[in-house]
Amino acid sequence: MVRSLLLFTIMILVFSGRIEGQACLPDSMYIDSSGFVFPLPYDSLNNPMGGIDKEACINQEFEFTWTLKVPDTVLFPGIPIPIPVDYFRIDTIGAISNLPSGLTYKCNPPNCLFDAGSLGCVIIQGTPLPINPVGTYDLEFVGNLKTATGATIPVTFPNPQLFPGHYYLKLNEENSPNCTTSVDEPGEGMLQTRVVPNPVDALSLLEIELQRGAELQITIMDLTGRVFRSWHLYAPGGRQQIPLDLSAMPAGYWVYQVVADDGKRAVGNLISTLR
Predict the structure, then answer these.
(1) Residue numbers in the chain where pLDDT is lower than 70
(2) Which of 15, 40, 176, 269 is buried deepest, with most CB atoms within 10 A?
(3) For residues 242 and 27, what is the distance between their CA atoms, to the nearest angstrom?
(4) Which of 169, 258, 179 is nearest to 220 (CA)?
């Protein structure tokens, strides 16, 4: 009865749009970091490999993802003790300045509120319009850090005191050979997957179609990026059904990621009503 009621509630949320597909997936390599926004800004002396490592082109799809890891405490210049953090939040519109026309951003979570200790992401995506001047755009986040004391502190990234540097986005003319993008063309770079059933049972199946045999890494995470389970396996070419032992998965909304040894990947959502 409890499971049926929970399933009914989740399905209402799904059809009402309150549970949304994820705009981006945070990079789990930052799960143990001290925060804040990764990659860190470009700085010619201290972080020459940082910043935005992709170039955009007029009339070509583009996307780039930042991972946000909000720390539990922050040490501000001039304040001798760490300040406990409640959350960091950016507006869902207008929080990233100097974006070329045609590019927008979305967050995971969708309300762009990142709790202390959580792992989230912000993605800029879209197609730069011809009205944009070709050149370099110096991007900047503007948000608010809510402390456990109730104070709200405006914070920008990059920040000359906390995280100095720049997030330069190079915009090239149409069809420039310098243009790079993380948007995968159909059939290139993406795996075709689905999980059945979903909402999941204790033993569900990951259906995947491969053009050739491949080593796969399968990772299941919660919405903060915490890994529930991760493992490697070899799958032959063709359509495969891979058993997923989800008997210990708590009820909730989850993300799975499949990465093949050739770099192709898939990201999807799981709904659990098991516990």
Answers:
(1) 1-22, 29-35, 75-80, 162, 180-190, 223-225, 274-275
(2) 40
(3) 24
(4) 258
| Tens-digit pLDDT profile for residues 62-100 | 999 998 888 888 766 666 677 788 999 999 999 999 999
Fold classification of 184-272 is Immunoglobulin-like (2.60.40)
pLDDT of residue 271: 76
From its phi and psi, is residue 117 left (phi > 0), alpha (psi between -120 and 50) or beta? left
Q: What pTM was computed for the model?
A: 0.61
Region 28-172: CATH code: 2.60.40
- Which part of the chain has CATH 2.60.40.2550? 184-272
Amino acid at 130: P
**Spatial separation of the C-alpha atoms in residues 156 and 114, rounded to whole Å:** 15
What is the spatial distance between Cα 168 and Cα 207, in angstroms, rounded to a whole number?
40
239, with CB counted inside 10 A (0-12, 13-18, 19+), is exposed
Rounded Cα distance, 4 and 103, in Å: 42
Q: How many residues does the chain have?
A: 275
How would DSSP label each residue in 198-257?
Answer: SSB-SEEEEEEEESS-EEEEEEEEETT--EEEEEEEEE-SEEEEEEEE-TTPPSEEEEEE
